[in-house]
Amino acid sequence: MFMSRVRIFAALIAAASAAPVAAQEVPAPAAEEEKDGVADAVAFATKLTADATTALTDETASDADKLENFRVVLADGMALNLIGKFVIGEARKTMSDNQTARYNEVFPQYITQLYAEQFQEIVGKPLEVIEAKSIGARDVIVRTQFDRKEGAPIMVDWRVRQLRSGERKAIDIIVSGVSIMLVKREEFSAFVAANGVDALLDRLAAEAGI
Question: What is the mean pLDDT of residues 151-179?
Fold first, then answer.
């Protein structure tokens, strides 16, 4: 059974648009590559949403199986290793090998629980890509909108990064202006300062149901 809903709020950084190409001018290779990268990021985010929806709406699966299938989708589509390192922050420098190994095992289970709750708001709803913009050399923000019968549309921003391997992975999913990564980094830091790393690991394992 999914954990109780979590609402988290943080600001999203907007990116500047690329400079327009002059009329009848052949686009420079760099501009073409950027355009292709944005298009690929949009396709990636659209597919990830579709795969997540399929996992969470499978009527033949139990709640536990739906969550496990969703975790498989996220494990394939998200750079969970990079996200985990970012979220644990400075505490990672003082963690023992055993603590690091346990964190690497527990964190993916924990974070996918949170994202499963966020996705419950959008599964089965039509996705509309509002805009997509490059941020730096490797990241693209894909802004999408999910309409609802009642209430305002749900806005979901996908930060997609092209890794050095050439693969594209989501490094953040921002629902209604909320980045789990940013808020959890602050939360983990405060919790470790007050209670220690082992207490954090115990808490993550308990909330992940493992």
Answer: 87
Q: What is the total count of domains within the chain? A: 1
- C-alpha 146/C-alpha 54 separation (Å) is 16
Domain holding 131, by residue range, is: 29-208
187 inside domain? yes
* Residue range 53-82: mean pLDDT, rounded: 85
**164-175 per-position pLDDT tens digit:** 888 899 988 888
Domain annotation covers residue 202 = yes
Distance CA 40, CA 191 (A): 38
In a domain, 67, yes or no: yes
Burial label for 168, CB within 10 Å (0-12, 13-18, 19+), is buried
- Could you give the C-alpha distances from 103 to 63, 69, 89, 94, 126, in angstroms and in order? 25, 21, 12, 13, 36
**Does residue 1 sit within a domain?**
no
Q: Which amino acid is at 200?
A: L
Contact 141, 158 (CB under 8 A): yes
Check whether 87 has a pLDDT greater than 90.
yes
What 8-state DSSP symbol labels residue 143? E
- Residues facing residue 172 across a β-bridge: 159
* CATH code where residue 34 lies: 3.10.450.710
Q: What token pair was written down for 147? A: 């309409």
Q: For the residues 22-46, what does the mean pLDDT come to?
A: 63
* CB of 88 closer than 8 Å to CB of 201: no
Measured CA to CA, the distance from residue 169 to residue 117 in angstroms comes to 20
